[in-house]
């Protein structure tokens, strides 16, 4: 039941490959989540009742879609998106294929975090900007994003950590990465050494990301 360090050294090339596959997956997914999730989160906020782009239809439709995707367990979402994944990337296995499902799961997750961060802004600041003649785009760019930047960065950190967990789950269906290595070697072959190594890598990765994210959030928080 102990750790065989000689065996661990033999597996280093596989561990190295799996680690960079995980980084590749979460990097792509995070980028897509931010690019799409940020405007979705902003729309969820500014179309709410009493705000400068109030639109009940947009608010309800977006809210429904976001809640729908978030309510589906990731492993089910992973399987349900197989046809779409195959259409987009031409395969259903490997880190690129897994990135499709990861992105779909991360977008609504991050969007809700952005919406929550924006709701913490004092509405008096927004009203002052409107009174000064600011356009909706100026309010979003110069008021909302500026005031909520610390919360949004914390949201990026939380999304990134969630993606690490999701990416490990994607390994169970051939997604590659640390999760795939843990399943193929650790679980199916009862290899305690590889299980220990993969768990340790994930713990360290999460801790580093959390510490870095907290630091950046504090630096940009001017309140």
Automatic annotation (TrEMBL):
SUPFAM superfamilies in UniProt: MetI-like
Family matches, as InterPro entries: AA_ABC_Transporter_Permease, MetI-like, MetI-like_sf
Pfam families: BPD_transp_1
Keyword Transmembrane helix: yes
Occurrences of domain ABC transmembrane type-1 (ranges): 19-213
GO biological-process terms attached to the record: D-methionine transmembrane transport
UniProt keyword terms in alphabetical order: Cell membrane, Membrane, Transmembrane, Transmembrane helix, Transport
Membrane topology qualifier: Multi-pass membrane protein
GO cellular component terms, A-Z: plasma membrane
Localization, UniProt: Cell membrane
PANTHER family found in the cross-reference section: ABC TRANSPORTER PERMEASE, D-METHIONINE TRANSPORT SYSTEM PERMEASE PROTEIN METI-RELATED
Annotated family: Belongs to the binding-protein-dependent transport system permease family. CysTW subfamily.
Protein name, UniProt field: ABC transporter permease
Organism: Bacillus timonensis
Taxonomy of the source species: Bacteria, Bacillati, Bacillota, Bacilli, Bacillales
């Amino acid at each position: 039941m102990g750790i065989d360090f000689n065996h661990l050294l033999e597996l280093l090339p596989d561990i190295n490959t799996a680690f960079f596959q995980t980084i590749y997956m979460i990097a792509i997914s995070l980028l897509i989540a931010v690019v799409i999730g940020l405007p979705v989160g902003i729309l969820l906020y500014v179309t709410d009742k009493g705000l400068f782009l109030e639109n009940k239809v947009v608010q309800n439709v977006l809210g429904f879609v976001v809640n729908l995707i978030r309510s589906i367990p990731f492993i089910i979402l992973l399987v349900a998106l197989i046809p779409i994944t195959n259409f987009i990337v031409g395969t259903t296995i490997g880190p690129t294929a897994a990135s499709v499902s990861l992105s779909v799961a991360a977008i609504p997750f991050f969007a809700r975090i952005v919406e929550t961060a924006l709701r913490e802004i004092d509405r008096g600041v927004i009203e002052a900007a409107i009174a000064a003649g600011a356009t909706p785009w100026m309010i979003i760019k110069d008021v909302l994003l500026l005031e909520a930047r610390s919360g949004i960065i914390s949201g990026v950190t939380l999304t990134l950590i969630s993606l690490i967990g999701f990416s490990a789950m994607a390994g169970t269906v051939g997604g590659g990465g640390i999760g795939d290595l843990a399943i193929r070697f650790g679980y199916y072959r009862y290899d305690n050494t590889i299980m220990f190594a993969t768990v340790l890598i994930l713990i360290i990765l999460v801790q580093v990301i959390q510490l870095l994210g907290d630091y950046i959030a504090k630096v940009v928080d001017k309140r």
